[in-house]
Amino acid sequence: MPDVSSIPENERVYGLKGVLEHSFERTRHDASGALADYIPELAKADPDRFGIAMASVSGEVVGVGDVDLPFTIQSISKALAYCLALEALGRDKVLAHVGVEPSGDAFNAIVFDALSNRPFNPMVNAGAITVSGLLSEAFGAEAFEVVLDRFSAAAGRRLVMDETVFRSEAQTGHRNRGIAHLLKCAGALGADVDDAVDLYFRQCSILVTATDLAVMGATLANIGENPLTGSAAFAVEAVRNTLSVMFTCGMYDFAGNWAFDVGVPAKSGVGGGILGVVNRQLGIGTYSPRLDAKGNSVRGISAFRDLAEEMGLHVF
Ligand code: DON
């Protein structure tokens, strides 16, 4: 039996779980950043929680730390709702309402593409509210159930919404209501303002774990089919289009840095989650609720940077 301690650290080969354990250890000490508090309920999270999970397209799932702790999906819902809209309404209809150009602006910026009067992309609030409007027009009163069904299919288990977070955001989300009214005025939003915003707040309040995010990521990596359940969650073309926009716009005004350092499509949420996709290989989910000034999870970014380096995940 070879003695492991005689093998130099940089020559040891670890399984996925071992790789995660090492990344977790290297990144868990950073206590910088702050909880989101503009939605009052989010400020109640335990700031120290941290989990990293990975799911492969062959169905292997591993995790370290708080990978089974539920938190609200928040903006990560934007990517999945966009995928659903592309599939349900077709690419041309969706593109007529929302662009695919990085804005370089904050997630809640009140700015549209001046030439087309459309939101720049579906990953910022203006674009996501427009997508929720399209879904609410297409599915009417069933819209949230349709969204929840698809998110659940991608996660491989029945998800639920956190009523308290939903109410907290519905009562305080004046900026998003303002954005929705401006979208209506610009002609980008066809749906009723209240319906669009209601669906947007609901989809943001769906509870997930880091493990769920990893499995959802693996479903996208597996071009729409959940590798654990074998069920089809999203159509192939919609997945390709969604991953493209996640790559260029998923991390808001940090998207350029992210593409440079990490190099995989990803989406973050102010609940503290990040979902990353290594095309045809892996989904990665992280949870740590302390955020940087741009609204991205501090330790989530560190963990992804570390894993990208360690595992050679960058697409280039
Ligand atoms: O629009 C909002 O304010 C939230 N419900 C979602 C924002 C979000 O997650 C931005 N992410 N970093």
Automatic annotation (TrEMBL):
Substrate binds at S75, N125, E169, N176, Y200, Y252, V270. It comes from the Bacteria. One of its GO terms (molecular function) is glutaminase activity. It catalyses: L-glutamine + H2O = L-glutamate + NH4(+). One of its GO terms (biological process) is L-glutamine catabolic process. Its EC number is 3.5.1.2. Gene3D superfamilies: DD-peptidase/beta-lactamase superfamily. Pfam families: Glutaminase. Keywords: Acetylation, Hydrolase. PANTHER family: GLUTAMINASE. NCBIfam families: Gln_ase. Homotetramer. Belongs to the glutaminase family. This is Glutaminase.
